[in-house]
TrEMBL record:
Source domain of life: Bacteria
Job description of the protein: Catalyzes the insertion of molybdate into adenylated molybdopterin with the concomitant release of AMP.
GO biological process: Mo-molybdopterin cofactor biosynthetic process
Keyword terms: Magnesium, Membrane, Metal-binding, Molybdenum, Molybdenum cofactor biosynthesis, Transferase, Transmembrane, Transmembrane helix
MoaB/Mog domain: residues covered: 172-310
Pathway it works in: Cofactor biosynthesis; molybdopterin biosynthesis
Protein name: Molybdopterin molybdenumtransferase
Swiss-Prot/TrEMBL catalytic activity: adenylyl-molybdopterin + molybdate = Mo-molybdopterin + AMP + H(+)
Family, as annotated: Belongs to the MoeA family.
This protein's record includes keyword Transferase: yes
Organism: Neotamlana sedimentorum
EC number assigned by the record: 2.10.1.1
Lineage: Bacteria, Pseudomonadati, Bacteroidota, Flavobacteriia, Flavobacteriales
Length: 392
């Protein structure tokens, strides 16, 4: 049995960023990392652009201007202004070359075709110069930038429709167990609904990993070997739940051995999630998480999460941690370090009841895991506790 620290460092050491790339449509690239610098194909803005509804002026010494034309957003004509002339203009419209300032309409007195401004204004006022945001051929975003909704908006504003990004791992989730029934069917005696697959798939989706397939296998050694073999050969990451403990019908460990998956660790001194396995075959990572749902999800956040971040070449590879004042008393039994479901808010954390690894009810309310190290036996109200913030 190894420690949590050893398990985490094994995962860090054994995951390298994947440099495989893929081209994605921009609207499907949120959360991906750019695999090369992107040059702007255009100047942005592409023309001298008005930032206000008002008048574009060819400035002169007088405060009175003659309005000679109008340019709306999208208009293509370019009226030529002599000094002292103005055109009515609107936000986003192209400012004529011969205009050198825009005054907002609230600041003028208009009488027929004439306007009067209150005082002299400076050149270029309210004009967004060509290429102010980014110049044509300049680097719009650098390689390794994580694409966010704002980045997608920005690249789209430059007319970019697809981007070269680092591939995300393809992930198989395999659930094991004869007792597992599909929701939608009546439960027979001894059955429970299978919930780990949808839970882990949702956790992956919220981290923006979408290449996820779900598989299930009954407690049968040959079928387990066959399914694991295919999953390992066709995915970058395989997450198995259940069947990893020591029972007569726990076939996952034996199947992984038969398939020559190199074991990096099996069993971590922690609660929940003691029978956690991590191994690799070729470039595929294999995590066998305990079947108990809360144990499986805890192991996902503490361990699988790190593997995913490393694969994606991200810099923040562990979930954020903070110290928080406990709002609860808690007594830890045994000497395993423990992760406890909690609700964190503004520097304080409530440790929830119902910490059993089979229970998801409290996990459904939690937004944090409180970590109690090996030698902490008790938490009292107002004690400072390490708190891991969940991406929920
Ligand atoms: N003799 C020992 N027994 C057990 C030990 C031990 O050290 N010695 N460890 C216990 C701990 S801790 C855990 S955690 C579990 C882990 O067992 P497995 O990973 O082999 O998981 P299963 O036995 O298959 O399932 C455990 C539990 O979870 C339910 N389950 C499984 N899969 C799903 C799913 N997809 N959706 C919902 N629920 C699921 C399953 O029905 C069981 O109730 O072992 C202890 N035993
Ligand atoms: O590891 Mo088990 O998850 O303690 O119940």
């Amino acid at each position: 049995m190894i420690s949590i620290t050893e398990a985490i460092s094994s995962i860090k050491i054994n995951h390298k960023p994947s440099f495989a790339t893929t081209t994605r449509r921009i609207e499907k690239a949120n959360g991906y990392i750019l695999a090369k610098n992107i040059r702007s194909p255009i100047n942005m803005p592409p023309f001298k652009q008005s930032a206000m509804d008002g008048y574009a002026l060819n400035l002169h010494d007088n405060l009175t201007y003659k309005v000679v034309d109008e340019v709306k957003a999208g208009d293509q004509h370019q009226p030529i202004l002599n000094q002292g002339e103005a055109v009515r203009i609107f936000t986003g419209a192209a400012v004529p070359d011969s205009a050198n300032a825009v005054i907002m309409q609230e600041k003028v007195i208009a009488t027929g075709k004439q306007i009067k401004i209150e005082h002299q204004i400076s050149e270029q006022l309210n004009i967004r110069p060509i290429g102010e945001q980014v110049k044509q051929s300049a680097t719009a975003l650098k390689k390794s930038t994580k694409l966010t909704p704002a980045a997608i908006g920005y690249l789209t504003s430059l007319g970019i429709t697809e981007v070269l990004v680092f591939k995300k791992p393809s992930i198989a989730i395999i659930t094991t167990g004869n007792e597992l029934a599909e929701p939608g069917h009546k439960l027979n005696h001894g059955q429970i609904y299978e919930s780990n697959s949808k839970m882990l798939q949702s956790a992956l989706y919220s981290l923006k990993f979408y290449d996820v397939t779900l598989h299930k296998v009954e407690d049968d050694y040959t079928k387990t070997v066959t399914l694991l073999n295919t999953a390992i050969n066709t995915n970058d990451l395989v997450i198995i739940t259940g069947g990893i403990s020591v029972g007569d019908y726990d076939f996952v460990g034996k199947a992984l051995k038969e398939l020559h998956v190199k074991e990096h660790f099996y069993k971590v001194k922690q609660k929940p999630g003691k029978p956690l396995f991590f191994g690799k075959k070729n470039n595929t990572s294999v995590f066998a998480l305990p079947g108990n749902p809360a144990a499986a999800l805890t192991c996902f956040y503490i361990y699988v999460y790190i593997a995913l971040q490393k694969m994606m070449n991200r810099t923040e590879i562990e979930l954020p941690k903070t110290r928080a004042k406990s709002l609860s008393n808690f007594i830890k039994r045994g000497d395993r370090p423990q992760f406890l479901k909690g609700i964190y808010s503004e520097g304080k954390v409530e440790i929830l009841d119902g910490q059993n690894s089979s229970m998801l009810q409290t996990f459904a309310l939690a937004n944090a895991l409180v970590f109690l190290p090996e030698h902490t036996q008790e938490v009292k109200i107002n004690d400072s506790v390490e708190t891991i913030l969940l991406p929920v």
